Amino acid sequence: MKDNFSSQSDKYARFRPTYPKGMFDYLLSIVPGRENAWDCGTGNGQVAGVLAEYFDRVMATDISQQQIDHAVRHEHIEYSVQRAEKTTFPDDTFDLIAVAQAIHWFDFDAFYKEVHRTIRSGGVLAVIGYGLIRTNPAIDKIIGGFYRTIVGPYWDKERRYIDEDYKTIPFPYREINAPAFEHSVEWSFEHLVGYIGTWSAVKHYEKEKGHDPIDLVRDTLKASWGNDKTIKGRFPILLRVARIEK
Best label site of 54, 58, 124, 167, fewest CB within 10 Å? Predict the structure, then answer.
């Protein structure tokens, strides 16, 4: 698994969006129990922090120690540095396995074997993600051009799975038809720029070119922003869910 985020784990924790309450409420309504959950590829612990309010124990794993160092803390969360495809968890442990904005980096076959081993019969697997932010037509045009044209060649090949709304990932289960969700934010200009700066393609571009590509659009983006202190944005939520019977 690639690690594109250790070098900016503090910014990842500050600027990345979270997920809507309605999505968590839905997942909680279909899990068989609330004893153990696994947040795989936890990053800064956004999902783990929510699950910890409902589950007795949340095991949160990531390959990046730096990400875990900046993760949210809760008495019900146990963090560990482990690969998604091979963990030390006992068989038949989890009522819920959640993977948020991470599965596209995994070895799918090996991860699904680990899911099958560690999940309880009847447990739920939730593959979660979010697409490109949507604000207003003027700003969306600038961000879209930046995303596709300026840093487009610098995205890892795995990014296509997000562009395809996770519909093309291997998913060898009988899928539950989940509701559609979106996450709403109200951000300052600085927060939006900070979020864009966490994109892995921005870091790849900067490493190769020696300068920050956001500087190429910052003035245009600011002009389109206008005088508003904040703007509202929406992230479409990607969600694929299965109940795994063994």
Answer: 167
Distance CA 50, CA 193 (A): 26
Radius of gyration of the chain (CA): 18
Residue entry with tokens 């610098």: 154
Please list the alpha-helical segments (H only) found in the chain. 9-15, 21-30, 46-51, 65-69, 108-118, 137-145, 160-163, 189-196, 200-209, 218-225
3-state secondary structure (DSSP) of residue 31: coil
pLDDT in tens, 58-105: 999 999 999 899 899 999 999 999 999 999 999 999 999 999 999 999
Are 35 and 90 a contacting pair, CB within 8 Å? Answer: no
Rounded CA-CA distance 234/35 in Å is: 32
Q: What is the mean pLDDT of each run of 10 residues along the chain (246 residues)?
A: 51 83 98 98 95 98 92 97 97 98 96 98 98 97 98 96 97 96 97 95 96 98 95 98 97
Among 72, 66, 122, CA closest to 97:
122
3-class SS of residue 37: strand
Give the 3-state secondary structure of residue 152.
Answer: helix
Residue 60, beta-bridge partner list: 39, 79
Query: What phi, psi does 3 have (nearest 5°)?
Result: -120, 95
Chain centroid to Cα 205, Å, comes to 21
